[in-house]
Amino acid sequence: MFLAMLASNITLISHWTESRGVYDDICYLRQAHLFQRFGWQGLDTSLARETDGYLAAKLRSIGFPNWNEPTRAPCHTQTADGGKWVMTPPPGTGFVLALFPEGFQVVPLYVVANLFIAGFALYALWRAREKIALTLAALFGALAIYFMINPTKASYSMAPTMVVCALAGLFTARLFVDERPRRLLLIVAVGVLLGLSASFRIANVVLSAGYFLFFGLSFLTRRSRETFMSGLVLGLAFLVGLLPVFAANFVNSGHPLVSAYGGQDTAPPSLDPAVLRAYLHDTQFPLMVIACLGTALLWRFAQHSGVRRLALLLAGNLALNLAFFATHPVFTQYYVIPILMLSLWTLLFAVVLTRGPPQGIDTHQADGLRPPEVLSRPQQ
């Protein structure tokens, strides 16, 4: 079933065009063009570098009314000092598009992303050892592969984001399920991936909120060297993952902590009934319910203390992210998909990586909780 869905996705993707009329697409493709033209110096997105007419040609191909006026181009803004016009999206999506030949970038990007997601789904299916785990792996794997077409096609930034969420979910689950001596290495991997996700969508930086809340509270409640080092390593690894964003900010805005988004007018957070109704009537709402319910069930039935702590992390991360987007002044069909996929992948891997007691042995017996006289009786 997974392979059939993957083949169907690839067939659909092979007929996609890079001139579908979406303004953000042009910006991601322009960033890729700059990387291919100037190498790492492509981080500089100033319109002064638009000397080959690439942006104008792309805008004209989608019928943009002011295609010949660079300062009217979508997702470009003037820096605070008024010195230049730069792009607002972070550089990650343009970088991954630049890995493929110009004119044929979107199709291979989505094909590769689909292959990765199908690989994660097959891995979860292979690791499942019990009926419940096998069922969950089959259902969610099919859902994850389907989502690589809709809503992932809505934005080029979503394809790499989905891959990062799946990988971060796997490492997060291993961090709490296995609790191996290599725990710090897993924390480094999770931190780098969470930071790197912001290179594809700035809003992805919120994906780390629950992690910092959990590790911060862990240190406050258990003041130990281990909890301190875990939080410190996570923070440092997260900053390493953010380096591409810092570099782009420094090149374009003159300061690593000043984003090009700062030059745009943005509404303050507020509870807009129209936005809330939009989420209630969108596919994202049942996914929110599933993620919240799955987190609650993981807490309720977990027989491993690490898995219970994982449920707390997921609950905090879901609460913070959903609160952020509920107060966001704009709604789209994919805004909360990253946090939902990160949570659901983590839940799935927590289930399939957790081994139950051997068959034929009672759970209480395996935990050493049955009285000796009961253990000595022959089981019927």
Q: Tags for this entry?
A:
single chain; 380 residues; mainly alpha; 2 domains; two-stranded antiparallel sheet; 17 helices; globular; disordered C terminus
Radius of gyration: 23 Å
Order of secondary-structure elements: HHHEEHHHHHHHHHHHHHH
Q: What is the spatial order of strands in the main beta sheet?
A: 1-2
CA-to-CA gap between the ends? 40 Å
Tell me the overall shape: globular
Largest sheet: 2 strands, antiparallel
Count of domains: 2
Uncertain spans: 357-380
Find the count of extended strands (DSSP E, 2+ residues): 2
The helix-and-strand class reads mainly alpha
The average pLDDT value, as a whole number, equals 88
What is the strand and helix layout of this fold?
Layout: H1 2-13, H2 23-38, H3 54-61, E1 76-78, E2 85-87, H4 92-97, H5 106-127, H6 131-147, H7 158-177, H8 183-197, H9 209-221, H10 225-241, H11 243-253, H12 273-280, H13 284-301, H14 305-326, H15 337-353, H16 363-366, H17 372-375
